[in-house]
Amino acid sequence: MKLLGSLFLLVLCLALMPRKVIAQTATAPAAPSAAASNAPATETTEYKLPPDKLAKSTALYNLRFKLRLFDTVYSLLVLVAILSLGIAAKYRDWAERVSKYRFVQAFIFVPLLLLTITVLSLPLDAYQQSISREYGLSVQGWGSWFGDVAKGTLLSVVIFALLIWLFNFIIRKSPRRWWFYSWLIAMPITVFLIFIAPVVFDPIFNDFHQLEATNPQLVHEIEKITTRAGVDIPRNRMFLMDASKKVTTLNAYVTGIGPSKRIVIWDTTIKNAKTDETLFVVGHEMGHYVLNHIVIGIGGTAVGLFIGFYLLYRIANWAFSRFQQRWRMRELGDWAAVPMLLLIFSIMATISAPIGNGISRQLEHNADIYGLEVTHGINANSPESAAHAFQVLGELSLSYPYPNDFLVFWYADHPPIRDRVPFAHSYDPWSKGEQPKYVK
Question: What is the 3 state secondary structure string of 188-244?
């Protein structure tokens, strides 16, 4: 499913898409509440792991690095094999024999292509899931895991059959400007899919419940954060997700746009983090809205896709002339050329990863600052609440304390926890008589 996930990034851009800003208000810090004043007595100034967890974290870090490299190469080789062995051409011939209508052909060719990718990727994906189970990061049974694979594949088939048909139609109608027209329609499609994701896609894979039904006091505390942030999220759009059915790590997030906007807290967070730590995580996520990260994300995606589609156009024309006979492609708008376009895009996405990840790390750092500021005065000790939240997150996810700087530069879309913990305590404009950066 890793390759299918990469394909989703072409149009959905969900993994890096920030949250929507609603409004920002200047509210004076509130007095610390009883529910949010349960910060640890000792300070967490450095991210450390006990010897047993450090050993597991080191082994997992080294293993995941090797798997990441192998997965990247293997995913590209899968597409090369589909092209070189004539599989794509054979699927095209089958689709054309079934119907002369290209819309119907798309719903024959694309499912065959994606099912082939899924089957070829399944052993590696299953191995990675077994590693998560072995290290205690996942508790999901194999039946449930295969069910998610099946649902993800079906969802991919429906969405990509429509999208690839549309892009293929544009290529055939405008061989010289298809890259520009494709870019024009990619952005509104992306925004639309992000809008419907919380209410259409997310419930397919996880169960959600009203947070107020089980944790009314936490909802009351969260409302202090949303009020100060100026983000209007009513109680009936605060949800608890049954993450414990699948994972042991913690998380909370704000998602959606406009009417689909909502707060989601994993039940594992409620179990493992204290109220003040949960409030910091919510404040961090709220920062993505308030700091206009949704606008930055859409703008960055627009620029990236504009450049990406143009480079795809130039490289695809070169590759077509070079491999047309070998891969049995009739034209660039041929169904058999689709894997070649995906291959080129995947290579470009791999090469350009440091750019997107670097921007993401900066946005996440800004959200950390916002989380510290918006919880200042609500949490009794907001720096420690944030630092200990990172410590708990790192321990549960077995995050390696000493990641390689180059790997952070290339792969990490969040700042490493080793940097986030000390920063939580070093950022203190109030004691220095300075103005906070965001929450005045």
Answer: HHHHHHHHHHHHHHHHHHCCEEEHHHHCHHHHHHHHHHHHHHCCCCCHHHEEEECHH
Q: How far apart, in whole angstroms, are the C-alpha atoms of residue 117 and residue 4?
A: 8
* Residues 397-430: b if buried by 16+ CB within 10 A, e if exposed: bbbbbebeeeebeebbebbbbbbbbebbbebeee
Which burial class, exposed, middle or buried, applies to 368 when counting CB atoms under 10 A from its CB (0-12, 13-18, 19+)?
Answer: buried
What number of residues does the chain have? 440
* pLDDT of amino acid 122: 96
- Contact criterion met (CB below 8 Å) for 105 and 95: yes
Domain spans in the chain, listed from the N-terminal domain onward: 17-52+206-293+355-426, 62-205+295-352
- As a whole number of angstroms, the distance between CA 90 and CA 113 comes to 10
Q: What is the pLDDT of residue 220?
A: 93
Distance CA 406, CA 65 (A): 12
Count CB atoms within 10 A of the CB of residue 295.
12
The token duo for 440 is 């005045």
Ramachandran angles phi, psi of 302, nearest 5°: -60, -45
DSSP 19: P
Is-contact 290 231, C-beta < 8 A?
yes
Query: What pLDDT score was predicted for residue 41?
Result: 52
* pLDDT band with cut points at 50, 70 and 90 for residue 42: confident
Task: Give the separation between CA 437 and CA 440, rounded to whole angstroms.
Answer: 7
pLDDT tens profile 247-262: 999 988 888 877 888 8
Please identify which residue in the block is written with the tokens 């998560």: 132
Residue-wise pLDDT for 302-358, tens only, equals: 999 999 999 999 999 999 999 999 999 999 999 999 999 999 999 999 999 999 999
**Beta carbons of 131 and 63 less than 8 angstroms apart:** yes
Tokens at 1, concatenated:
């499913």
Q: Tell me the per-residue pLDDT of 148-171, one tens digit each, with 9 for 90 and over.
A: 999 999 999 999 999 999 999 999
Task: Name the CATH superfamily for 17-52+206-293+355-426.
Answer: Metalloproteases ("zincins"), catalytic domain (3.30.2010.10)
CB neighbours of 259 closer than 8 A, spacing ≥ 6? none
Q: Supply the pTM of this predicted model.
A: 0.86
Whether residue 279 is predicted with pLDDT greater than 60 in this model: the reply is yes
With contact defined as beta carbons under 8 Å apart, do 390 and 420 qualify?
A: yes
Dihedral (Cα; 89, 92, 96, 100), 10-degree rounding: -130
